[in-house]
């Protein structure tokens, strides 16, 4: 059976082993540390649990720790103790390790006695939120790598071999000098081949297996999660081609979590958006070795290198990027079509002081995206307008009484509005007030957004009436206008 | 002269290229053909120049100049010889009655595309002639070599006859075996008695088939000829021979009576061989083959063979024993002084191994194995069905210090291999090899299967059967037989000596003598800052330095500061590394207390070595804990200048910038020692020595080293990366009998995009975008700083000369450029080629 949630169980024969998995165990058993980088839902954890099983089968001692399961900790010592206790538990070592600031010291207690090598698999290696702790943690692990050539044979530093896995920017996760990843053999997860897909389709006993496999491969390449999702969708369906096309259309809408998560990562970084937009326009761009942004797009799984050029990893991602106005300024959409929008990353709202207003603004624009994808463009415009209002209100609430007074003076009507509390001001006055306080001549808080928000009022919607699906361009513009205000009004 | 000397003389005079320049393209023939067809070419050119080749124009042209058609056929890559053309539906010449149809056919296959307006018919025809000539290349080369050999043999026979009473002649009629006659180019006889057979083998490249020919085909031919009393002269030459491993050549020289190359043959070697054979007192041919069999059978069962046991007269018997031993030099055979007895040199080992074949005794097998290798068994433990031991390993790569051995009566299977690997990782965890001694032979197919499974195991498990023990016992060097087994059975990546990510071990440390000497000399009076890019070998040098300083009666105290960001971190590290007591609220002024405590540890001057210091420098510059900027390093300076201790700092960008900063005079207590690439000889050793230690041959070592230098410019990490990739290449080879690395292999590895990417990212290291852009500009065209500045501006990159000079200095530190004073030259000379993998410059 197909597995769409979590790793594929180790004894499941619906699993296609990929060449990198052979390299993985070969490197570990040759004594090397390994960094396994690859996109989310690309089979890293499935590969790690198989690696663990294989190592145990040949008598190699191995423990795995998933940093995603790290509970809230309040000190660095607690983090190290948690990690070491997990390792101890994996080995059945009865040790209760108290908070300690040194990873090597803690692991010395956590691993079984002896001289045999110890392999520790660290899954989701980027999952230590606190930057200082993360640097200390990996810095100390890096020290283990350096020290291994300089310590006695029975020292734990000599015995340890690490395998790290995740989807992250190697150069940003840890300071360069502290990074254990520099000492690793870097392996990339690889896509399934078309032959692998055919095998999986056949195992699922789907009719016309060859044409189904070919169709899947042509759209999502060998992305393991998407392949399995599509196979799962068509498995048992009466009309396979129609079902498959429907599933693909669903993915192309950008709504499934897999696609949303991926594009949110891209939208969170301007440099990534620029590269992706360039590849949309030009089809491919030259691969630049040492370019961290290009490398990250490969790690994320959006791009790959072919003939020394950077191209989209599959037709699906290319389509989504090409119809997303947040990626390309000239989205390939025609009137009436739905443009693929993504909610603005939460980091863009991080500057808002009031947590409730922050939640309101973020949810309103996320709801706008949902409404748009559901075919409700007027509601989407209202969502963007609400997000704008929450953002400006937060902006003004954080100002001094004198600045609020300045803002109040800029109002055009609404004499009964409080001179000291902007909470009951109309959106029009909030916008005027914000402009006055910001004193930014170039700042344009767009009136359009306010006007479009009013389209939820039937009476106003009747003026210069258009059908809901005709408002796609306005929704696209509203998304961009809100992003501009978030960027400029700080 | 022993066989090793013979091999060396042979390989030293081999030809790298057997073909003459005109063997590739016979320009005389090409030119002559062009001259002969000049008229038709001119006529066709006129047709082409008259405009696009329409149906009408082609019809009219061919009507007027029908002979142009043969040129068209050549341009379309048809042989105009007739049948081949007709097979494709074209006539071999223009038939006026079918001209209209022919024109249609020509247009159908695209003659108008071939002869588009502007086409230079003469130039195109020249290409076509070269193509036609290429078909004759193989025969031309072979024919010339045949002729050369014929002359050599003829001359050698006539020269030899000047010295011989019984004259030699070309006569194969005395050789009754027609198959053998066909295998030989010439047979030389005295009267009707054949004495010598000649065969030739010319190899322009090395490969599985070529190696098989040398190692098996010709030795087998010699064996069959020996039964007729005929010595084989094998004239062998070419690049393939140059690339053959020592082992292959050993088998060739062991099996063939007279292997000889063209140069040796021309220099009298052939004549001498003829004289030697013609004048040798030889047993009758048929007897010799039979005697060999008798000797071999006897030695297989007994420890020696007596001349009197052979069914021939005493002199012939002694000669037969001597000839037998002479032809088997890898075997440890000893001929008694009188020649009457041939014995195994290590008779007791051979006897013990044979007993094991009959009745396997684990303890006896272990003892024999250890004794043959001259290694001490450190511990033994008897398990229910097996005997386990830990032994001192032979002191050569790829062994570690100790070696785990399991001795078992069970055959080596997957489950046994897993268990042995597991036990090895427990008992001898830093060895990547374990030995499994068993009475059961291991077949070739089992070895292939076993080798594939090795990558999963904790250690390479090498199966040694009782028969293999016997082969070790009969071998002049038992370790060689064991190394054969290791190369055949191992996952080579496990035993690869190349270190890619961590400081190198002593065994892999090459060069840096000048830098080490400078550091040591300076430390008598001053401190030192070792500057260099990531992975250039700073920490490896420091490790070596610590040992040197100890020997020179200094007291070195080392600390790896990669996790040190604050004074507090430093104090923690010092406490942990050196067991010193320092105040809880450690401040830079407390450094003198630290030094006082360290001084009390011994007699010599104190040297504090702080590796990876960049982070601490940054904090020392920018923190707000003290009003004195750079307080930590000011304290270091005071201590250094007072002579209380000296410091060795190592780092990359931050420390380099401080030392180069004219506004930072308090760093002048440090002498900078810049670490860039290795020198040419050391870089070659770093690649070649470890490969050789693995038993890998380098037949064209000089050109391999040259190519490796070109593709690495001596960067130690890139050299080791190349070595590692070569080991992986070898590991993928199914045939492990003759593992060799050639310059072709180096070219193969370094032509990949993966290699180019590694080369660039390693050299660039932590370079900024601006520094990368500058390096790309210099790679595109070397120039003065002013010219580079101009180029930057042309590309829209704003920069002033100060920023450029700073970038150039950093690129010099990274070993990318050589000089910043006048014209900026690349030091990493393969940079443009590496960049070419990725198309145009990223700065453009």
From TrEMBL, chain A:
This is AAA domain-containing protein. InterPro entries: P-loop_NTPase. It comes from the Bacteria. The lineage of its organism: Bacteria, Pseudomonadati, Pseudomonadota, Alphaproteobacteria, Sphingomonadales. Pfam families: AAA_35.
TrEMBL record, chain B:
This is AAA+ ATPase domain-containing protein. It holds the Pfam family AAA_22. Residues 526-659 form the ORC1/DEAH AAA+ ATPase domain. One of its GO terms (biological process) is DNA restriction-modification system. GO terms for molecular function: ATP hydrolysis activity; DNA binding; type II site-specific deoxyribonuclease activity. Residues 7-269 form the Restriction endonuclease type II DpnII-like domain.
